[in-house]
Amino acid sequence: MSQHSNTALGRWSRDHYLLAGAFGVLGTVLIAIVPGFANAMRPPEPTAIPLSTIELPLPRPAASSGVAGPRWQFVQVQPGQTLGSIFADLKLPAELVARVMAVPAAQNLSHLRQGQELGFELTPDGALRSLRFDASAERRVELAVAADGIDAKVEDRPIEHRIQVGTGTITGSLYADGAKAGLSVAAINEMANVFKYDIDFVEDVRDGDTFQVVYEELWRDGQRVGAGGVIGATFVNRGKRYSAFRYEHDGKVEFFDETGRPLRKTLMRIPIEFARLSSTFGMRKHPVLGRMRAHKGVDYAARTGTPIMAAGDGKVSFVGWRNGYGRAVIIDHGQGRSTLYGHMSAWGKEKVGQHVSQGSTIGYVGMSGLATGPHLHYEFRINGVQVNPLTVTMPKPEPLAGVELARFRAQTAPALAQLHSLEQRHTRLAMR
Predict the structure, then answer these.
(1) CA 328, CA 343: separation in Å to the nearest integer?
(2) How far apart, in whole angstroms, are the C-alpha atoms of residue 99 and residue 102?
(3) Which of 25, 160, 252, 302 could, after both became Cys, cross-link 306 (CB 3.0–4.6 A)?
């Protein structure tokens, strides 16, 4: 060992040796502890789960015959279609039509309705297997066709009659405000038709008029299938209240006011629907002749072809061309009253001497004779003298009496109570 080394070692004291020994012991301890600590921080090894394999049989595939099943085809009847034309469109044999029509349950098919739905179950080769249709709202018929005959199955489908109510105020038009009140178009039309003897819904209705309606809806299998009609209604027109209640009398369904008097007057003021008053009764400048002369009737402008109704029961006294009136009809209603209808585009089927009922179609709107546009010229005559049909007092029918009146009041009491409740509620809301 060199002198330099001996000198360096000689410099270590007893304290130096003690410190070196302590560091050595500490290092040894750390070397032993750290691997164990690291192993403690590792996640435990997952325990191995023993697995076993089970063979499961696969489901057998469905046997395929290679033949497609029958299919349904639905047809909605179009205007002018017959059962024969529909069968021809489906390439079904014509002789099959006669076989189907020979089945008593299929008699309804002789007069198909536009929009009516027919269901045809066809085989893959196009042959008819069965035919299904609704004979009425409550009956469905299914005809099973076989080589040896046709079997009919009639299924009853009960209709549920639901009572609905609607109330509203006129702010624009009867149809718009009726729709806001939840009324169907059918219910609005019937309400207007019920009150037409007293209210001109073209000229008389004003903003602020109110109405309340109790009506039926027809439901089947949770779906609405039609309107059942108005049961009762009130209409306040220019401050005057009118009421109407449905009631069957003498085998006919009619409408009566609360006192039991029929709303149906002996004569109608307005024998046309969906028209507007275009010329009133009195002096005016004739639109064709260009000079002042008396206009002895009222004019209702409407589309060509709009049906014209008989204003009341009576006998046809004239059908033909009548000077400036063009194609015209005159009806004698008895007791000196008669009505004239002019400027028709076509007459109805009625002949002179034939009896007509109120509301029956006697002709169609046109512009024959001295006319500048399609309209109905309507005259009301008493003993041959023209009077204003909009202001003349119409004869009133006799009201119900005795036992019939008692039955009417008992039958209409629920609808009357509902209408009163609707009116009170509507009044409270209007006052807020």
Answers:
(1) 6
(2) 5
(3) 302
State which amino acid sits at residue 47.
Answer: T
Mind listing the pLDDT tens digit for each residue in 47-101? 444 544 445 444 444 444 444 556 899 999 998 889 999 999 999 998 999 999 9
Kind plus residue range of the DSSP H or E element containing 347: strand 337-347
**Where does 210-313 show beta strands of DSSP type E?**
210-220, 223-237, 240-249, 252-256, 276-279, 282-285, 292-295, 298-301, 307-309
Burial letters 75-89, b for 16+ CB under 10 A, else e? eebeeebebeebbee
Tell me how far the alpha carbon of residue 256 is from its chain's centroid: 26
Alpha helices (H) in 140-296, listed in sequence order: 174-180, 185-194
Residue 150 shares a structural domain with residue 136: yes
343: left (phi over 0), alpha (psi -120 to 50) or beta: left
Residues spanned by the domain of 337: 276-387
Over 70: is that where the pLDDT of 122 sits? yes
- Retrieve residue 89's tokens: 């469109």
Domain termination residue (choose one: 156, 175, 208): 156
Q: CA 120 to CA 127: how far, in whole Å?
A: 10
CB contact set of 112 (below 8 Å; sequence gap of 6+): 77, 81, 82, 83
Per-residue CA distances from 302 to 182, 295, 358 (Å)? 28, 19, 20
pLDDT of residue 283: 67
| pLDDT surpasses 60 at 378 | yes
d(CA 378, CA 294): 14
The two three-digit tokens of residue 274, written as one number: 């969906």
Q: What is the rounded distance in angstroms from the CA atom of residue 144 to the CA atom of residue 121?
A: 9
Shared domain for 353 and 375, answered yes or no, is yes
pTM for this prediction: 0.58
Residues 231 and 329 in one domain: no
CA distance 394 to 195: 15
